[in-house]
Amino acid sequence: MRRLVAIHATGSNVRLSDISGALTASDAKSEAKASLRKGLKLTDDQFQGDESIKIYAGISPPSETVAPPKSPGTKVEDICPSQDNFLIAIVPGRSKNKRNELFPQGALAFELQPQANLEVGLEQTVSPVKEKESNVLERVSRLEQEFRGEREEMQQEREEMQQEREKMQQECEEMQQELGKVKGEHKEMQQKLGKMEGEHGKVKGELGKVKGELNETWQKLGMVEGELGKVKGELNDMAKSRENERTYTKKQEAALREIIEEKEKQQERERADYQEWIAAYNAENEGLQHDMQLLQADVYSLALKDKKALSFIKARNLLDRVQAQLATKFKLGRGTSYAFRTALGGANSSLNDRHAALLMLFKEHHDSLNEAEAKLPSQSQALDLIAERYSKIRYFGDVIAHGTFDTGLYKSASSLYPGFSALVDCIQSK
Question: Model-level pTM greater than 0.70?
Answer without folding.
Answer: no
